[in-house]
Amino acid sequence: MSRVLPLLTLALSAPAFAAPAPAAAPDLLPFKATEKVLPNGLKIIVVPTGFPNIVSLQIPVQTGSRNEVEPGKSGFAHFFEHMMFRGTKEYPPEKYQDIITRAGARQNAYTSDDLTNYHTTFAKEDLETVLKVEADRFQHLSYGEDVFKTESRAVLGEYNKNSANPVSKLFEAMRDTAYEKHTYKHTTMGFLKDIEDMPNQYAYSKVFFDRWYRPERTTIIVAGDVEPQKAVALVEKYWSKWQRGSYKVDVPVEPAPKAALYKHVTWATPTLPWVSVAFRAPAFSEKQKDQAALSVLLSLSFGRTSPLYKRLVQDEQKIDQLFDSTPNRVDPTLAVIGARVKKAEDTVYVRNAIMETVAKLRSEPVGEKALADAKSALKYGVIRSLDNTEQIAGMLASYVHFNRSYGTLNNYYRVLDSLTPADLQAAARKYLTDEGLIVTTLSNGALPADIGQLPKLAALEPKLNTAKIDLLVQKSALPQIRYKLVFGAGSAHDPQGKEGLAALTAAMVASAGSSERKIDEISKALFPLAGSFSEQTDKEMSTFTGTIHKDNWSQFQDIVMPQLLAPGFREDDFRRLKDAQKNALLLDLKDNNEEELGKERLQTNVFAGSGYGHPVLGTVAGLDSITLDDVKDFYKKAYTQGALRVGLAGDVSDAMSASLLKSLSRLPAGAGLAATPIPAGKMPNGLEVEIIEKNTRATAISFGLPLTVTRSHADFPALWLAKTWLGEHRASSSLLYQRIREIRGMNYGDYAYIEAFPRGMFQFFPSANLGRKAQLFEIWVRPVAPENAHLALRIALTELDKLVAKGLTKEQFEITRGYLMKNVFVMTSTQDQQLGYALDSQWYGTPEFTKLMRDGLSKLSVDDVNAAIRKHLSSKNLSVVMIAKDAAGLKDKLLSDAFSPIKYDGNKPKELLDEDQVIGNMKLNIKPEAVKITPAANVFAN
Question: pTM of the entire structure?
Answer without folding.
Answer: 0.85
